[in-house]
Design a protein that fits this description.
- This protein is α+β, with helices and mostly antiparallel strands.
- The protein folds into 2 domains: 120 residues; 188 residues, Phosphoenolpyruvate Carboxykinase, domain 3, CATH 3.90.228.10.
- The protein is built from 9 helices and 9 strands.
- It has a 5-stranded antiparallel β-sheet. Strands 4-8-7-6 form a 4-stranded mixed β-sheet.
- Strand 6, helix 9 and strand 7 form a beta-alpha-beta unit.
- The radius of gyration is 24 Å and the shape is globular.
């Protein structure tokens, strides 16, 4: 079965925008294109889903299958072409100082939508080129699922499907604590698994740029306010503007170290994230001049600030810093209370 999943609001744009007449026309074109794209997306998805029965063995003769495949291919290609036009309109708007707020995010969502369409197009083209009945019948069971929607799964101790995963994350939070942080985790209120396909694709693509491409992601903690955690889950990390090791994104191995940055009262939020460290530079002294360019020039992908290096103006606890948002993606949201 061929599927494309898109967030229902992926193409909504801000309303009641005040712009000069010269820019308003361009913005209205962009709005119209995105609305049309949304309808076209739904139509394309319906066509793909309705076609699955046609490719079961014995349902069609080869000539009819060929026609259906060609129609599907053209439909998907036209949809992708419309997306490209909308993105071009957004690019034009963004060159102007009076570009409406939200166009940049809208453009990113449009570009994220190209991935699943391209996958579908490539699959149909391969089937057409193969001429094989076996490959054609694979369309009835093939699932090309490249969603842009965030999937959040609540884990539970009492459910057999998620209990082992829950206990593993709970153990990680409770075991990696240190008394010098002055924080006691009294209760874990909930654990959610986070799957954001856009951020995951972004990480996979960025991995090819690392000095050490074979290094698997490390799972590390990041503490912040709940409202910020929700933004990270949806849109990914953003770079900080300062820190002991420059303007980066900071992670820790100890849950209580990251919990120091959870400033909510009552229930607090921790993120356990996949982080691409690649080739890390060991730092035992503060370096607030670091950024992505300087670190890359030195042949490294991240910083490992080694614990117990206070005597050399370093840190008390292990910390890791990355300098590109594509190096990290949230994997679990842990809500907890402190004593």
């Amino acid at each position: 079965m061929l599927q494309i999943n898109f967030a229902a609001n992926a193409y909504e744009v801000p309303q009641n925008i005040s712009l000069p007449a010269t820019r308003l026309a361009a913005y209205e074109d962009f709005q119209l294109l995105t609305k049309e794209d949304r309808k076209l997306m739904r139509k394309t998805q319906c066509e793909l889903e309705n076609s699955k029965e046609c490719f079961k063995p014995g349902k069609q003769d080869p000539a009819d299958e060929e026609k259906i495949l060609m129609l599907l291919y053209e439909s998907v290609r036209n949809t992708q072409h419309r997306l490209a036009k909308a993105a071009e309109a957004a690019d034009t708007l963004m060159l102007e100082a009076d570009c409406p707020k939200g166009v940049h995010k809208q453009l990113q969502r449009l570009r994220n939508a190209w991935g699943p369409l391209y996958s579908v197009m490539q699959h149909i083209r391969r089937v057409l080129e193969s001429g094989s009945a076996g490959n054609r019948s694979s369309i009835s069971s093939c699932s090309i699922l490249d969603s842009t929607e965030v999937v959040r799964t609540m884990l539970s101790k009492s459910q057999s499907e998620t209990s082992a995963e829950y206990l593993k994350i709970e153990d990680r939070v409770i075991r990696y604590t240190r008394p010098e942080h002055g924080i006691v985790i009294k209760e874990i209120c909930s654990i959610e698994r986070i799957e954001n396909p856009v951020l995951d694709r972004r990480m996979r693509d960025f991995r090819r740029q690392l000095h050490n491409r074979n290094c698997p992601p490390e799972q590390l903690f990041h503490g912040t306010r709940q409202i910020n955690a929700e933004k990270i889950i949806t849109d990914g990390f953003i770079l900080g503007n300062r820190g002991m090791f420059g303007a980066g994104i900071y992670f820790a191995t100890d849950s209580t170290k990251s919990a120091q940055y959870c400033q909510d009262t009552g229930v607090k939020a921790l993120l356990l994230c996949d982080v691409l460290l690649g080739k890390h530079q060991v730092c035992r002294t503060a370096r607030n001049d670091l950024n992505f360019e300087t670190l890359r020039a030195e042949g490294f992908d991240s910083v490992f600030a080694q614990r117990d290096s206070r005597e050399t103006r370093g840190v008390l606890n292990d910390e890791f810093v990355v300098y590109d948002p594509r190096q990290a993606a949230p994997r679990y949201l842990i809500k907890f209370k402190t004593a």
